[in-house]
């Protein structure tokens, strides 16, 4: 459903099929950075079909496989937005603070998300 108005959104069958393909691809053996990218794409796909908990797990797996802090912070910011949408603002804050510590230049935009999170009520923070 829409995070702003609550309207039920039908997920197209093609999108569900795409997510299943991403899931199978992510699980294939590959170099760590390749697996990280695959799990990140799976996380994005899961967000599109409304499977928030699974998306968070996919982003956690993407973080596990990467050796690059900037990629980690990117995934952490995505996870924080999901957590905020689910009402876990404290957990979102922790993720954003950790992202800022890893990336003080804030290339991932953690600071902006943190500011938005505390400017608007949590129900209004929406996955783009």
Which characteristics define this entry?
single chain; 128 residues; 6 helices
The radius of gyration is 15 Å
**Content of β-strand:** under 5%
Shape: flat
How much helix is in the residues? 55-70%
**Helical run tally:** 6
Distance between the termini: 14 Å
Low-confidence sequence ranges: none
The major β-sheet equals: none
On the 0 to 100 scale, the average pLDDT is 88
- The sequence of SSEs as H and E is HHHHHH
Q: Would you mind describing this structure in some detail?
A:
The chain has 128 residues and is mostly helical. Helices cover 67% and strands 0% of the residues. Helix 1 packs antiparallel against helix 2, helix 3 packs antiparallel against helix 4 and helix 4 packs antiparallel against helix 5. The longest helix is centred in the N-terminal third of the chain and has 17 residues, at 32-48. The mean pLDDT is 88.
């Amino acid at each position: 459903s829409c995070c702003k108005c609550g309207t039920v959104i039908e997920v197209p069958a093609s999108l569900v099929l795409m997510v299943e393909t991403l899931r199978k691809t992510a699980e294939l053996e590959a170099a760590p950075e390749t697996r990280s990218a695959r799990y990140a794409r799976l996380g994005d796909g899961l967000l599109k079909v409304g499977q928030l908990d699974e998306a968070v797990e996919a982003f956690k797996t993407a973080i596990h496989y990467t050796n690059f802090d900037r990629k980690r912070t990117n995934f952490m910011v995505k996870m924080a937005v999901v957590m905020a949408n689910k009402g876990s603002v404290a957990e979102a804050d922790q993720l954003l603070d950790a992202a800022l510590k890893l990336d003080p230049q804030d290339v991932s935009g953690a600071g902006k998300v943190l500011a938005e999170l505390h400017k608007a009520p949590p129900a209004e923070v929406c996955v783009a």
